[in-house]
Amino acid sequence: MTTIRFMNATQEDAEAITECIAAAYSKARETIADLPDVTAGIEQDISDHRVVLAVAGTGLAGVIIFAQQDGEMKVFNLAVSPNAQGQGVAGKLLARAEAEAREVGCTRMVLRTHRLMTDTRAIYAHLGWLETEVSGNSVALEKAL
């Protein structure tokens, strides 16, 4: 993979972000019937949250959507384009969000994922996240900073 550049998303990036997220979740959508629509509301996410793009060459390699809430940094979505998966893009995006969380004084990061997304859960575990709750098909994870 070429060098990754990080960019703040603008409304003009909404379509590319939606396509990246849809592609990243396409295999999970085939097997997880109750997976929520993670592509809805991207324009609003860009307005309301931090949306950081990982760009490799001329293409979108991944995206992370996060925001500070109640003293912690919450990750709303993390997606890596299928052609960039397995190359450390998720870890780099999460590290970017972690750095911003530390800068604003957050002491932990939190997120939720689907119970059946075992590969995703394994990636988070590898990156130091701990599962704190399983409720139905939702798994809560956190990482101390």
Descriptive account of the structure:
It is a single chain. The chain has 145 residues and is α+β, with helices and mostly antiparallel strands. The longest helix is centred in the middle third of the chain and has 15 residues. A hairpin with a 2-residue loop joins β2 and β3. It has five helices and seven strands; from the N terminus they run βαααβββαβαββ. It has a seven-stranded mixed sheet, with helices on both faces. The mean pLDDT is 93. The protein is 33% helix and 36% strand.
Quick structural summary:
It contains five helices and seven strands, in the order βαααβββαβαββ. The protein is α+β, with helices and mostly antiparallel strands.
The best one-word shape is globular
Helix percent band: 25-40%
Spans where pLDDT lies below 50 across 5 or more residues: none
**Strand ordering within the main sheet:** 1-2-3-4-5-7-6
Share in β-strands: 35-45%
- Ends distance: 28 Å
Mean pLDDT: 93
What's the total count of β strands? 7
